[in-house]
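quick one
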Amino acid sequence: MGRGFGESFDQDVGVNGAPNLTLHEVDTARRHVFKCTAGAVAMLLGSHTLAMSAGWSQPLPLGFTAVPVSVADTLQVPPEYVANVLYRWGDAVGMAAGAPVFKADGSNTWEEQTLQAGMHHDGMAFFPIDGNPRHGLLAINHEYTDDGLLHADGMQHWSAEKVRKSQAAHGVSIIEVIERQGQWRVMPKSAFARRITASTPMAVSGPARGHDLLKTEADPSGSHVLGTLNNCAAGQTPWGTYLTCEENWNGYFSASTTPNADEQRYGLRHQGWGYRWHEHDERFDVARHPNEPNRFGWVVELDPMDPTHTPIKRTALGRIKHEGAITTLSQDGRVVVYMGDDERFEYIYKFVSRDKVKPGGIKANRDLLDHGALHVARFDAAGHGRWLALTQGENGLTPENGFASQADILIRTRQAADQAGATKMDRPEWIAVHPHTGEVFVTLTNNKQRGQPGRDIDEANPRGDNIMGHIIRWREGHGESNDAAAQDFRWMHFPLAGDPGTDKPPYRGDVQGDMYGSPDGLAFDAGGMLWIQTDISTSAMHKGSCKRMGNNMMLCADPVSGQAKRFLTGPSGCEITGLAFTPDRRAVFINIQHPGETASERSDPVNPQAISNWPDGPAGGRPRSATVVIRRKDGGAVGT
Ligand code: FEO
Ligand code: CA
Ligand code: CA
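structure w/ MU-OXO-diiron:
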């Protein structure tokens, strides 16, 4: 069992738990129900209670053949499953005729890239069309580019054309997918298909819209931004929209040689992270456009069903390095959004809307994410925790401390969380809400700096040199209420990741079953099984016990016992990410990100296949991030 598990924590969950309406339930019925039924919320609350009384807390079957660790350059699934590559970097988007063909030597133009799948697929969600679990849209994030692979000659002869191609390979894809006779495919011509890039016009809404810190020469209103950057994990709202999250956006900007304190707090630095966009697009030169970085770091909401919809940056959810935005409902029907800020010693956030979710889809809920209260988590001793409101006038967020308005707090969210006294965590990545109990799980992927001078361990982050990471679970409120809108919570560790059998302390953990490290992607399926995806960095993978763990993987775990079973291993150099189930659970979509990544920051265009040629093989040219669909050969529910 995972560290700290105990009956006292488990026994009060079940039929007495809070009726938290879940995304799974809403998703299955969405559009139909929310468009046309006035009593939809009440009905779904009823169905939830039913699901809990069906005995969810029995041990889960994990009824598949575990796969062994692997260092092969292949995608491995259990023998009773089949995996098919669906959508690779460079595949055409939504065009039957005249679509640009992917050129394996990296020579597609930037204009062609705007009509092709972006690079480095990450968070993802499935949206059924007319409630059909076998026909829907996939919204897929393209987190970042490896410019060594993106261009024929890598970063040599750097040019405006290369910057535009890199910008076009970022953002989001909307593609239409359908299953016929067990085979999933991308519809080559689709009225829904869309690419959103680092240049797509977006609106800004919420309390920070129009604030002076968001105004630029090109946008004196502070309300319209071009593009979204470094779209990492994602979320789905109960009213059917997609939430795409801007993570390491700071890396694209070149600050002055001496960034100011606010810029430093968000990691802005001279020359950025080497994308070199500022050399040909002055928008990314902070000295010339000091407010442009303030227009990134947001959660962006978009309607996947409307290809003309202008994506909206929702400032009420704060400005951080957003990993994901996972939604659930409070007992009284408000939306609650859980969000991690993925950097060492950063925080976990929760937004609670002011208003309740209404039937009627996006039209009825178009402003819901603009009004509400943002909170940040403080993990106290003995398994207690508190949500600290990031509201002007509370928790030291006063003009004397530099927070004159709510917009100040939302633009400088990290500084506000510092002021409020939140707990600094070991890189919060994905968050998952149990579909029946509302219990919340978060991955803390790793933090090798934990335990260094001035960076002490604490109860929630208990290991120095935390290479392997851990998972924390919590329940909201006191007693048995477990209301997602509660102001406090009770927490405990799920596992400390790592090998229970090793004698090397940094690699030792208490995982039960198949061993893993650096948990990152995390999601429940509708049956309450917890799926865990790993992202051990290439540099860490070649050290210590990580050597024995092989390539990155996806596992399925029982959230009660902690028992984990390895379901999938990825090709060389990749991380596993993007996790979306069809509502009938007969298919799961995942993303293979950055196959072939080496310890260096950019791949070598002369020898791009040094580590991997997945998925196209040796004749293919370059390794390509891709969306994969996995199903059981007998057509049954995945994982059972
Ligand atoms: Fe984009 Fe924190 O992973
Ligand atoms: Ca991640
Ligand atoms: Ca990661």
